[in-house]
Amino acid sequence: MNVRKEGSVAGVQRYRWAQWGDLNSFFGLMLDNVTNLVVLTGILVGVFGYPADKIFSLMIPGTALGVLVGDLVYTWLAFRLARRTGRTDVTAMPLGLDTPSTIGIATAVLGPVYLETKDAVLTWQVGMATLMIIGVLKVAMSFSGEWVRRHVPQAGLLGSLAGLGITLLAFFPVMKIFSAPVAGIVSLGTILYAIVAGRRLPFRMPGAFLAVAAGCLIHYIMGGFNLLGTHATVPALEFHPAFPLPTFGFIFGLGKAISYLPIAFPFALMTIIGGINNTESARVAGDEYRTRDILLTEAFATVVAALFGGVAQTTPYIGHPAYKAMGGRAAYTLATGLFIGIGGALGALSVVVDAIPEAVITPILLFVGIEIVSQAFLVPPRKHAPAVAFAAVPVVGYLVLTYAESVIGKLDPGTVLPQSLTDELDILRAIGHGFILTAILWGGFLADLIDGRTRRAAALMIACAALTLFGFIHSVTPAGEIYLPWHVSGTLAWQIALGYAVIGILVLFRRS
Fold first, then answer.
1. Is this structure's pTM higher than 0.70?
2. How far apart are CA 405 and CA 385, in angstroms?
3. Number of folded domains in the chain?
4. pLDDT digits over 145-198, tens only?
5. Dist. CA 159–CA 126, nearest whole Å
6. Quick one: which of 7, 108, 416, 468 has the fewest CB in 10 Å?
7. Ramachandran angles phi, psi of 495, nearest 5°
8. Do both 485 and 337 map to the same domain?
9. Three-class DSSP category at 2
10. Beta bridge partners of 13
11. CA angle 290, 293, 298 (to 5 degrees)
């Protein structure tokens, strides 16, 4: 006998897909995505001099469309799960722009290509092509996700993420925060108080929203009254409408994008493994999604973004349990997808990106960096902590390389560098190029040594030697390209490869 209940039909409770908790969840997820767009714009314009109007008209519409597609599918998956299980408290998986790869692609692909070519359209096409490669790799790995998770060294993967957290997600944001320190530090303090420490704000206000609102208010008040020498003008409300249209322009960028495969592959790998872990986290919280559905959705959304001109990949976000605890259901992913997707098409996001100072919004990235570094040391076994730390070193090398090349790029064109400085720059390039793949291999090698798995450790060293010869890691070319070893001048690549090979042989034959 069916017993009717409040809000139900024939004993089947209706899915409460929207409630007040979705408001908090929406602000958190939406601001995460906006932060990535602000930082992408800031890096390309502020560091590399890329024209801002090209970002708004070429890159953002397709990038935002990927978020819209992914969030719409995740919203539908939540409805399907609620219907299948009969539960009313299902929380949709959060999806948005992947922060490490958004910054990584900007600093390691888009920026260098623009500095080399000064061609804004070609740079965009290379970004599209790189994103398409990432999307295709993710589609392929979606069918073997569990195998990938079992065989990729955890310490190396998390160590590389820790390096990204320390450098790209912590150091760069701190630089931006101190460019407008009053507003930036207030915003950072609010993030630390409300999100990191978990302290409740008055009226249960969303911490990310309050941090950005308070920071913007301080920034514009101080700038308007020229307090302490602060200058800030309210940006003009100029919309840059650009409806995303499919384009095969990425084909023209494939030639150069192939050389960035050592960057594309690890970023694809990270989101696949992250998607598996996030799906498991959702299952523990009570929402049992199918892992392949989650992975294929974010892979498909990435391909769609690339096909429509996007340059940043989507990924399921860490924190499904947190969104569930805030009371989020499915409305927050629906609202985020619509806000980002439609805003990108109508040009409204360009207004938001212009209006929010980087010093105010980058503390959210700093929070993400702190979380990533913390997890890198807490998730693996404690004995693998040295491997995690070791894996972070190549990422730090890339940070130093980026700043060195930025400073050298500002010198007069005719400036001749001393030979000693040129030699050091060559070494920095070898350390920094292919830094993510290097980090994964280094961390995995040391973790295997600690565990006594000497055969696998030796195999990783031999792999490092082979990859070095072809420039997948430690590329000795200025742009970090891959190559045939006999086409490279100098002996540095051969020396590095020989060093790896010797270590691999010694480890293999000195097993204990």
1. yes
2. 31
3. 2
4. 777 777 777 788 788 878 888 887 788 789 889 989 999 999 999 999 988 888
5. 28
6. 416
7. -65, -45
8. no
9. coil
10. 8
11. 135
Within 10 angstroms of residue 317's Cβ, the number of other Cβ atoms is: 23
Tokens 């480890």 found at: 507
Burial of 203: CB neighbours in 10 Å, binned 0-12, 13-18, 19+: exposed
- Please state, in angstroms and rounded to a whole number, the distance separating the CA atoms of residues 314 and 292: 16
DSSP H helices, 11-106, are: 21-42, 52-54, 60-85, 99-105
283 and 373 part of one domain: yes
Per-residue pLDDT tens digits for 279-329 = 888 888 889 999 999 999 999 999 999 999 999 999 998 778 878 887 899
Phi-psi region of 286 (alpha: psi -120 to 50; beta: other; left: phi over 0): left
Give the Cα separation of 407 and 411 in Å (integer).
7
Q: Tokens 């490279």 correspond to what residue?
A: 488
pLDDT in tens, 231-270: 766 666 666 788 899 999 999 999 999 988 888 888 898 8
- Answer yes or no: is pLDDT of 69 > 70: yes
Please say whether the beta carbons of 377 and 385 come within 8 A: yes
Same-domain pairing of 134 and 68: yes
Residue among 300, 311, 250 at smallest CA distance from 63: 311
Two structure tokens written together for 470: 């072809």
Pair 16, 88: CB distance under 8 Å:
yes
| Whole-angstrom distance, CA of residue 374 vs CA of residue 165 | 9
Identify which of 301, 325, 345 has the alpha carbon closest to the alpha carbon of residue 74.
301
Residue linked to tokens 């493994």: 273
Q: Distance between CA 91 and CA 81 in Å, rounded?
A: 9
Domain boundary among 378, 404, 435: 378
Same domain, 348 and 470: no
Separation between Cα atoms, residue 500 and residue 293, nearest integer Å: 40
Q: Is residue 179 one of the residues assigned to a domain?
A: no
**Structural domain harbouring 367:** 20-147+252-378
- Asked if 145 contacts 275 with a C-beta cutoff of 8 angstroms, the reply is yes
CA distances, 442 to each of 321, 369, 428, 435, 499 (Å): 32, 21, 17, 10, 14
pLDDT bracket for residue 512 (50, 70, 90): low
Separation between Cα atoms, residue 341 and residue 429, nearest integer Å: 38
Q: What percent of the chain has pLDDT over 90?
A: 47
Burial 105-117 (b: 16+ CB within 10 A, else e): bbbbbbbbbbbee
